[in-house]
Each structure stands twice: as C-alpha cells, then as structure tokens.
Amino acid sequence: MNDAAAALLGAWTGLAPTQPPQGLTAGLRHLTANGIAIHGDAVVLTDTVPHLHDTGPGGFIDLTAWECSFNSFHLEDFVPVTVEVLDGGEPVIAEADQRLLLTHGLTLALHICNLGCALEPPLPIRCIVSAGTTNGTFRFHRIRAGQHWHHPDLDAYTLEKMIVIDTSLPSS
User: Fold this and answer.
1) Is 65 exposed, middle or buried (0-12, 13-18, 19+ CB in 10 A)?
2) What is the pTM of this model?
3) Which of 12, 123, 136, 141 yields a CA-CA distance of 20 to 30 A from 162?
C-alpha cells in the first residue's frame, strides 16, 4: 500500500473502517459469482472464459501483462460514486469516493486471493487496486517469477492511491 492509500484508509490507526459498510456491491458480487478459472496458463474470471480466443501474450510483453489487461476494470463502473465531468471533459472523483473505491477494491482483492487459495492446487495471485481523481482500477494476475505489472516502489505512483495484495502458497 502506498503512503497515499494508507493515509486515506487510516492504515496507521488499524484499518478498522476498510470494509464497505454493506459489503461488496451487487455488481462486484455478480462479476465474481462463478469464481476464477485457469485458462491455458492464465487466470481469469470464470465468466470471461467463453469470450477468450487465446491467452497468449500476443502484443503484450508477457502473460502477466496480458492478464493485467484482460482482468482489469474500472471500479466506478460497479461502485456508486459521483464522477463529475469538468468543462475540459476530464472526470473528477472526490477523495471520499476514492476511499470508497479503495475499500471495495481491497475487499474484492481479498476475495479474489481467497478464490486462488481455494483452487487445487492453490494459485498465487496478485491483485492491484488503484484510485485517483479520475478513476479507480482493479486488476489481477497469477504471480510468476520475473514478471510483474507494477513498479515495486508503490510510492512512485504519485497521482494514485495504490494497494497490492499477494497470496503465497502454504509452505510444506
């Protein structure tokens, strides 16, 4: 979690209020209702499998980049926040609504990671949540050695509040 996200969520006071008051929105619950699936070597939402033609990296640098593109969506499409449009056409999301996007994104990330842990064999997953003045984004991918989507120094994202959640496989 970068410092901007930690400050907005109150991480230094225990993260107590980081769950959405009524849980995930119906849209986010519906999006993940059928879980996740492995398609080839990629992890995707189960309901998206019929729409896949292939899961090769194609024009992407690697399969992780492909997954982050395919498994990406705007949180404001599923979470009721106010998005004002200024004269120049740029959307603006108030900080209170950015916090709401982050809380839903964090809750969804924990849910997606739990789905990965429940697979047989368990699958290590990384979820990346961001929110800023123009949008909130959620994406996830399978954790692979040598492949990553985000800059490891989350504070390098100066215009976004960032949260990255990783699962790891149980040690034997």
Assistant:
1) middle
2) 0.89
3) 123
